[in-house]
Amino acid sequence: MQRRSTLFATALLSAALATILCLPLAAKAQAAAGKTLRMVPHANLTVLDPIWTTAYITRNHAYMVYDTLFAPDSKGKVQPQMVDKWSTSKDGKTWSFTLREGLEFHDGKPVTSEDVIASLKRWTSRDTMGGVLAKFITQYDVVDAKTFRIVLNEPCGIMLDALGKPSSNVPFIMPARLAATPGTEQLKEVVGSGPFIFKSDEFKPGDKAVYMKNTKYKPRAEKADGMAGGHVVYVDRVEWLFIRDPQTQFNAIKAGEVDMIEQAAFEQVSSLKVTEGVKVEDFAPAGLQFIMRFNHLHAPFDNVKIRQAAMVAMGQEAFLKTQVGVPGLYRYCKSIFPCGTAYASDNSSYFTGMANPQKAAQMLKDAGYKGEPILLMRPTDLASISKLPLVAKQQLEAAGFKVDLQQMDWASLVARRAKKDAPANGGWNIFLTAWAAADIANPLTMAMLNAQGPDKGWFGWQTEPRLEALKAQFARASSESEKKKLAEQMQVIAMDTATHAPLGQYNQPSALRRNITGNLENTGAVPLMWGVRKD
After folding, report:
1. DSSP 199
2. What predicted TM-score, i.e. pTM, was given to this entire model?
3. What is the dihedral of CA 442, 444, 445, 449, to 10 degrees?
4. Helix or strand or coil: residue 510?
5. CB of 316 closer than 8 Å to CB of 452
6. Could you name the CATH architecture of 288-506?
7. Which CA distances in Å does 97 have to 166, 174, 193, 293?
8. pLDDT at residue 414 above 80?
């Protein structure tokens, strides 16, 4: 009996070993899947330079591979990230910063003060808030490899807010040799010092982008908090899968083939909420705002009266009901600063947020519109805004505009909107997009208030010295009441000069498999992959 028991036990062990040995590939595949996080991003990734463009998909890519000097925590307070310590002189004009130990680029070279200064110079040449800060800066000084100084011509209260700016454009730090590239030219190489390494050899625009865990990255000791704290990575690999069809996205997350959909289709939110194994969460409760941007360089929108007529023709109702359509996911707001934020205001001389085609038609006639075609760009592959141009065409034509609707993918639109050529020569007149509330709640971070003209302005290139002067005053303001007054003055000018048209606010939640947890809240709608676990 004892011998039989021994033989039986041996047989069982042999069978178990045989099973394990016969299924190594399946076991390895399952283990690998557990360490790979697959996400469907909101758009296709084609531009890899986060300074050249403000596109959110490029910003999100950059957060995977680059690091920042400072970052906001979950309460919005700016905290050190790459910086170890800093100080200011008694007169408030000299800021000294020391980098923390262990910072290394993906090419193996250490991060130095020279890299930081070159990166900041490139960033200030393109960013709205960076441009304001640059007017206060007289010089940058390299003290040593890890210490640098920024010297101002007068005290400035936005230094840390600017260096810790969390969204487009973000002051990401890159090697000096790359940062030497003019901001008007795209980088040709991706080398950061962040928690993930971009796999350029596996990058296929329109198909997928791959990021590997940077095993040499040394996160801060603090717990992850918003965008600050320790950027600890719990997965070995992140794959962005560019699936544009909403139904295919739905089927993929339902089957567990993907772990996250960054922006769930509006019409599928209710179905996703009751799908087994799936949860729906809104990581940007402050929402986003649709906007329409004019090209101020070319006719007919080089005429402020014609821009004003277009704004009156727009309204918000048709855009929100057509593009979003789900009650509870949108709201009307005629302020250029999102409703519910500190500087929101209803103060506007003529813009009511309601469409008035009859009034717009009369304004257009009075402005001397000659029937020039309006080249309106429509991104066909970005579901969150693809219906907006169709509504814009309808509203503009109702007021008497002649509209040339040209359809393209989002990547082509992003490239084309950077062109200053006349519409007939490859340029444009109008595009529509969306901005997260965190990006446009402050006049110094709102790209549409960058009114520095063709050389340093945001796409659309408005020249308006009054806005720039008020932004400088805002940067010097010491009280919230003063800032609110200045912000309201800027809104009035923005409306009077028709910098852009605000088209209403909305929320667009994310869909995740229930086994995905971690640091996704209070990140300004940026899908940060550090601190995220796949259990």
Report:
1. -
2. 0.91
3. 100
4. strand
5. no
6. Roll (3.10)
7. 19, 17, 18, 38
8. yes
